[in-house]
Amino acid sequence: MHNRDALFIFCDGSSRGNPGPATIGVSAQTRDGEEIFFLSEKIGNATNNVAEWSALARGMEEALSRDEKIVKFRLDSELVVKQMKGEYKVKNQDLLKYKIKCDQLKTKFEYFEILYVPREQNSRADALANLAQDSP
């Protein structure tokens, strides 16, 4: 068990073209805003929704690899948040693969929360996704 509060993990996906070159940005922070880790990665060609789901999955994997068990995910994709919570059905087969994967990952956390936040509150993850887009 960690001697600090939950880790806030901000995730964002970006696709230029939708589908097109896609990237993810993930920023894990303490409640005080100290960044514990971040990801800025290209994921190949994908739709924006696949990029959003991919960011969530990578954030979950990275948190688990660092033995972070108490997590609060924040995404500016209302679709992914509602699909993850089961409020919306996942009909798209590409997205369903991510939903199944994320549901499996979720069971490995002691505490898991996912909430929608407005884009302004997700600026670091957005910047990381854009950084990957602009990198060679």
TrEMBL record:
InterPro entries associated with the record: RNaseH-like_sf, RNaseH_domain, RNaseH_sf
Molecular function as annotated in GO: nucleic acid binding; RNA-DNA hybrid ribonuclease activity
Domain RNase H type-1: 3-134
PANTHER family attached to this UniProt entry: RIBONUCLEASE H, RNASE H TYPE-1 DOMAIN-CONTAINING PROTEIN
Protein name per its UniProtKB record: Ribonuclease HI family protein
Native source species: Leptospira idonii
